[in-house]
Amino acid sequence: MTTPSTDLPSSPPVAAAPVGGARRLGSLGPVGLVLAGGVSVQFGAALAVTLMPRAGALGVVTLRLLAAAIVLLLVCRPRLRGHSRTDWGTVVVFGLTMAAMNGLFYQAVDRIALGPAVTLEVLGPLTLSVLASRRAVNAVWAGLALAGVFLLGGGDFGSLDPLGVAFALAAGAMWAAYIVFSARTGRRFPQADGLALAMAVGALAFLPFGAVESGTRLLDPVTVGLGAAVAVMSSVLPYTLELLALRRLPASTFAILMSLEPGIAALAGFLILGQALSVLQALAIALVIAASMGAVRTQVGRGKADLAGGPGEHPVS
User: Fold this and answer.
1) Inter-residue contact 103 to 61 (CB < 8 Å)
2) In 3D, which of 75, 65, 21, 58 has the Cα closest to residue 228?
3) Alpha-carbon separation of residue 50 from 60, 61, 223, 262 (angstroms)
């Protein structure tokens, strides 16, 4: 990872304004975009649970990426000319990162419970938020969120399958890389062109894995339909919202906001799958929400200070 001051700016340049629905989504503000993306991805994950017995873990990832790539390519119709070698390199790495993040996470939940898997995965963005930040207060919010996600996982990781833990930690590392390369892609490509191209790269890279595991099950019409719905909820909508948010939100603050994912997942599990929360889990969610609110308040205060001091470059908050 390169230095935060050049690769994770607190005020990244805004690309050409998205058209149609994307412009309306942008009116939510960066924090609203992140929260809306989290709701979409976690309710999409709840739907994916019902699909895994039909298509397998890798099959679900393949359907998600393929359907999302088709939708984004048709909607965005990205230009293939006029991009530098660095632009294409960024898109390829972004696409491979998305594919790896999804594949590794589903391998993790195939071996360990969802709660501990999400808890371990969130360590990636939290680590990024600390490394990218130059203010001690952000480390405090990251530590509070870390305590919350450990409580959400029950605080006991000693009895977990070591390979499952390794997959979850690797997924967290890919999540942190996704944050970095999503921001870079958003700066290099207009609208959601870079996202569409990266999704196509990820889908093509992951297709052999899904084909080997699931075979002809991926061609079943019901499975394809459910996979398309999962793709829209878990890939197309949240990734687009996050890409838009990262054009106006520091990566360090974005990473801490992603700590809300376990809480949103618990809500989706309760409403869709009937999974009730324990007192310990409720306390964990409260800690995570408090950390996220603190991160947002810190960023708002920093933004006001920057406005008062006049325009100009400033380090990551």
Assistant:
1) yes
2) 65
3) 10, 13, 10, 19
CA 89 to chain centre: 20
- Read off the tokens for 131: 């490394």
Q: Are 230 and 63 in contact (CB under 8 A)?
A: yes
- CA–CA gap between residue 165 and residue 151 (Å, rounded): 16
**Cβ contact 170:120 at 8 Å:** no
pLDDT band per the 50, 70, 90 thresholds, residue 71: confident
> Rounded distance, CA 114 to CA 121, Å?
10
Smallest CA-to-CA distance from 133 within 252, 247, 31 is with 252
Nearest to 260 by CA among 275, 237, 238, 278: 238
Phi, psi (5° rounding) for residue 288? Answer: -65, -45
Can you give the pLDDT at residue 42? Answer: 78
Structural contact between residues 43 and 233, judged by C-beta atoms closer than 8 angstroms: yes
What would you report as the CA-atom Rg of the chain, rounded to the nearest whole angstrom?
Answer: 19
Cβ-Cβ contacts under 8 Å for 309 (sequence gap 6 or more): none
Tokens of 210: 């899904």
Tens of pLDDT, residues 204-251: 999 999 888 888 888 888 888 888 888 888 877 887 787 788 777 776
pLDDT of residue 302: 56
DSSP secondary structure code for residue 192 in this structure:
T
The single residue listed with the structure tokens 């990551």 is 316
Please give the pLDDT value at position 157. 58
Model pLDDT, residue 203: 92
For 197, 212, 219, 286, 305, the CA distances from 171, given in Å and listed in that order, are: 21, 21, 27, 24, 36
Q: Which of 7-16, 50-59, 71-80, 81-90 shows the lowest mean pLDDT across its residues?
A: 7-16
Q: Which is more confident, 189 or 136? A: 189
Tokens of 75: 């909607």
